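Researcher: I'd like a candidate sequence for this fold, 303 residues long. If you have to choose between options at a position, lean toward the conservative one.
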């Protein structure tokens, strides 16, 4: 673990550094509060801070304040080093946001155990952050295909509708539904059906632009949001998707499963107000029309 040691006194800095190195920590030094603040802003992995209270410029207390106020999501564990040992001083230091304090002169062993306690808290904090990240990913993605899930793709669409109204840009929505998907499940089994969904998701991802989004809307239904595109671009993307899915059967074990998709495209012209339900419904109706007209094709929503 990396530790930042901020102390304007060179000798006491070197003493702390030597001890930390002996205990297996990596050490970054700062000769004053300004420097410490700068380093902490640059090095995100630096979470453990030992800071001297009395320093010119930004002192230890102010550094605590600044770190806590920055609202940074990464938590810093701050041990305040101080020669002040009155109750008021200690309360002031903890109030400023220090996690712990050590009064000088101190015993090396005391610093060692307090650092270890801090490291435990930082490790817990980091596992918590990771768990929350994983949870938020799971809440937004479909576990089978890795695409955005129903709720999240609608959220994306809602944001894009607001953005296109604000920026006066056009956008398109494509609803896709695999043709005769039930037959795939019935003929080859559900595991094969899953493989088809996974491969379809991959092909959809590969045929949209970087800023387009695709979600699994339902069982074999997919919703694509294409912000800031012209009608021609949207049609071209639709055509690419039809071809990428129809042109190559999906391989699963010894099977080669032919698959096609029907697409419905709803285009929202520049400055045209719309709401979420309307545009989804329009794309859905167009997709249904594509089914009626023979499948493996794209139909445009009536405006
Ligand atoms: Mg000092």
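Model: Candidate sequence:
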């Amino acid at each position: 673990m990396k530790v930042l040691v901020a102390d304007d006194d060179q000798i006491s800095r070197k003493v702390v550094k030597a001890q930390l190195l002996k205990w297996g920590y990596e050490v970054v030094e700062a000769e004053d509060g300004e420097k410490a603040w700068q380093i902490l802003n640059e090095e995100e992995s630096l979470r453990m801070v030992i800071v001297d209270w009395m320093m010119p410029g930004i002192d230890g207390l102010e550094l605590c304040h600044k770190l806590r106020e920055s609202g940074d999501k990464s938590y810093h564990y701050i041990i305040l080093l101080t020669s002040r040992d009155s109750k008021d001083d200690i309360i002031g230091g903890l109030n400023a946001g220090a996690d712990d304090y050590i009064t000088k002169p101190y015993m090396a062993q005391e610093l060692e155990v307090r650092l270890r306690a801090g490291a435990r808290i930082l490790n817990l904090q980091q596992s918590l952050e990771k768990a929350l990240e994983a949870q938020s990913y799971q809440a937004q993605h479909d576990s089978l295909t890795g695409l955005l899930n129903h709720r999240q793709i609608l959220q994306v669409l809602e944001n894009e509708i607001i953005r296109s109204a604000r920026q006066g840009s056009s956008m398109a929505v494509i609803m896709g539904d695999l043709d005769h998907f039930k037959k795939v499940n019935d003929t080859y089994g559900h595991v094969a059906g899953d493989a088809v969904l996974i491969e379809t998701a991959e092909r959809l991802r590969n045929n949209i632009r970087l800023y387009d989004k695709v979600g699994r809307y339902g069982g074999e239904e997919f919703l694509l949001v294409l912000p800031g595109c012209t009608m021609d671009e949207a049609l071209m993307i639709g055509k690419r998707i039809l071809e990428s899915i129809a042109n190559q059967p999906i391989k699963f074990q010894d099977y080669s499963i032919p698959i096609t998709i029907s697409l419905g495209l709803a285009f929202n012209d520049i400055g045209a107000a719309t709401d979420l339900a309307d545009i989804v419904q329009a794309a859905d109706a167009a997709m249904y029309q594509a089914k009626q007209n023979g499948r493996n094709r794209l139909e445009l929503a009536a405006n």
